[in-house]
Write a structure and sequence with these properties.
The complex is a heterodimer of chains A (about 290) and B (about 280). Chain A has 14 helices and no strands. With about 290 residues, chain A is mostly helical. By secondary structure, chain B is mainly α. The chains are: A mainly alpha (about 290), B mainly alpha (about 280).
Chain lengths: ~290, ~280
């Protein structure tokens, strides 16, 4: 970057969209990047964006207002929201413990936080079902209290908790690490209680990170498939998630319908992320004012 | 690191709660995989793994990863070179497109290929006329995997190379080194650990991917089932020991990935992108 500013190369015509540089390889690197992205990402996405409209606006509307589609979208976004909201305090607690306390084995515990990233989703799915199913280690315990923890939305919620936790921990952790301890100490010296220090010093500082972590966990949860379908029960209208409905529509050769549900998920997720971004901007402005 | 915000009574409580959450939510599922796989003894564990379908699934998984990971590694290096070493308009849009697969549902990442190459896809008829099979075949599995794992390497390299700046490469070029020599002798040694880190994560996801490949595979047992799909097929056939035995291999892969990743973060933290330093 610095070089680009330093060294305009003689003889090379100035292109308007790219600053000159003495480094070679731009055409090759850029050409390969664009070709590859075009074939692997842009062309397939074009199909996703265009194919729902094959049966016209009417077809899209008919698909989106099917009871089964509405129920699946509501379930996917609802459980994802709940799970991501739960993961915010859980993730903050884990990140806090990992950054603020020294204890034997801390780095090992820290490494385990990433397990949901490393464990293939299907493996997590059948393992969670074995734990929370009616005869599972924990499922049996919960059943005694009349709580069914698998083959219903609660099972979906548990799987989404599992998959989302590392997102919150990993976004909050670096912020907690870099947090200026002197401010906390000053607050303490000035007589602030532990709770006041947390609420008025720590929380405002980590809030943007918490929100980012929340939105990452939420976005991942909405699209999650492998870890959910084994524990979900997959009852139409009750515990059928939107990604599964896409698979079902494809199996019925309803390509336009499947694409419609996929596009709807993408649009709603995008809208949610946009909302989160506005919230971040709002908070940043308020912080400065 | 010296904790300064002391919460005297709270420390043991927080530690206990954290260990409980991580233990129940994250470690327990891992333990259950191995417990269930070995529930009926070592013989019952090994037997399903030596079944031809299981061996085929392992081979297919390795094949798909062996094609997808190098493709995305080369892409990652090329994209990082273009993005971190040059200034051009539309860069942030380009980065957004590279990140996009991370925010797509795996199912959608499979669906898009069916929309293109499936029986009623845009190119479906043409492919049928020319007797080429993509969906329900290995190439479909590769395409789905490539799409899902596309950002991994690029995402590790771009921030690192932006941090490092181009001074060293500029120096090499000024001293008369050629473009390829500069890349091989200056850039590559500087990014090798981050490249390895990205490849590691990319590979773990490629071998473990389920949603995207399940859409394009058709799950024909012993033909287009990768190891994660094999787990599902066995599980749905109530062959639980077999399903968990296959799952234990994938869990082992996940554990090895986690260990290597942690070692990289500890040993080479200075040579990874900022977010990966511990």
């Amino acid at each position: 970057m610095t070089v680009a500013a330093l060294a305009p190369v003689a003889g090379k015509p100035r292109t308007r969209w790219k600053e000159p540089s003495i480094l070679p390889g731009f055409p090759l690197a850029m050409g390969w990047t664009l070709t590859y992205l075009g074939l692997i990402v842009v062309l397939p996405l074009a199909a996703l964006v265009l194919r729902p409209w094959e049966a016209g606006l009417h077809g899209v509307w008919a698909t989106l207002t099917e009871d089964r589609v509405l129920a699946a979208l509501r379930l996917s976004f609802g459980t994802s929201l709940l799970a991501a909201l739960t993961n915010v305090p859980l993730g903050l607690m884990v990140a806090w413990t990992l950054t603020r306390y020294e204890f034997p084995g801390r780095r090992i515990v820290d490494a385990f936080v990433d397990l949901p990233f490393a464990l293939p989703t299907a493996v997590a799915g059948i393992a969670l079902t074995a734990i929370y199913g009616p005869t599972g280690v924990l499922g049996e315990q919960f059943a005694q209290f009349g709580l069914k923890t698998a083959y219903n939305p609660i099972g979906i919620y548990i799987a989404l908790l599992f998959i989302g936790l590392p997102f919150v921990v990993r976004t909050v952790q670096p912020v907690l690490q870099d947090l200026d301890r002197e401010v906390e100490e000053a607050a303490q010296t000035l007589g602030a209680t532990t709770f006041q220090r947390f609420r008025m010093v720590v929380l405002p500082a980590v809030l943007p990170a918490l929100i980012s972590g929340f939105s990452l966990a939420f976005a991942r949860a909405v699209g999650e498939y492998g870890s959910v379908i084994f524990i979900a029960g997959n009852m139409p209208l009750k515990s059928e998630i939107a990604p599964l409905l896409i698979v079902i529509k494809l199996e019925q050769y309803d390509y336009a319908g499947a694409a419609t549900v996929g596009l709807a998920m993408l649009v709603i997720s995008f809208g949610a992320l946009l909302g989160v971004n506005f919230l971040q901007i709002f908070l940043a402005r308020r912080g400065r004012a | 690191m010296n904790p300064t915000l002391r919460l005297p009574g709270l420390a043991p409580l927080m530690l206990a709660a954290t260990l409980a959450v991580l233990g129940v939510l994250i470690v327990l599922p891992l333990g259950v995989v191995f417990h269930q796989a070995l529930a009926k003894g070592l013989g019952a564990y090994i037997e399903p793994l030596t079944h031809p379908d299981a061996l085929h699934a392992i081979r297919l998984t390795l094949t798909v990863a062996a094609i997808s990971v190098p493709l995305n590694a080369v892409f990652g290096v090329a994209a990082a070179w273009a993005i971190a070493r040059f200034e051009f308009k539309g860069k942030s849009l380009l980065v957004t497109f590279i990140d996009l697969p991370f925010s797509m549902s795996p199912v959608v990442s499979g669906l898009v290929w069916v929309l293109l190459f499936g029986a009623q896809g845009w190119f479906g008829e043409w492919l049928r006329d020319h007797d080429i099979k993509i969906i329900f075949a290995t190439s479909g599995l590769v395409l789905a995997t490539v799409l899902v794992t596309l950002p991994f390497v690029a995402r590790e390299l771009i921030p690192l190379m932006q941090d490092q700046g181009a001074d060293e490469e500029a120096a090499a070029l000024t001293l008369g080194a050629g473009g390829w020599t500069t890349f091989r002798r200056v850039t590559l040694p500087n990014i090798k650990w981050a490249l390895l880190y990205g490849v590691l994560l990319c590979n773990a996801r490629a071998m473990g991917e389920f949603g995207a490949v399940s859409v394009v595979s058709g799950s024909v047992r012993g033909v287009t089932t990768t190891l994660p799909l094999h787990v599902e097929v066995l599980y749905n056939d109530y062959e639980f020991v077999g399903a968990f035995a296959a799952a234990s291999i994938l869990a082992g892969l996940g554990l090895v990935t986690l260990v290597l990743k942690t070692v990289l973060e500890w040993r080479h933290s200075g040579e990874l992108s900022a977010g990966r330093r511990h």
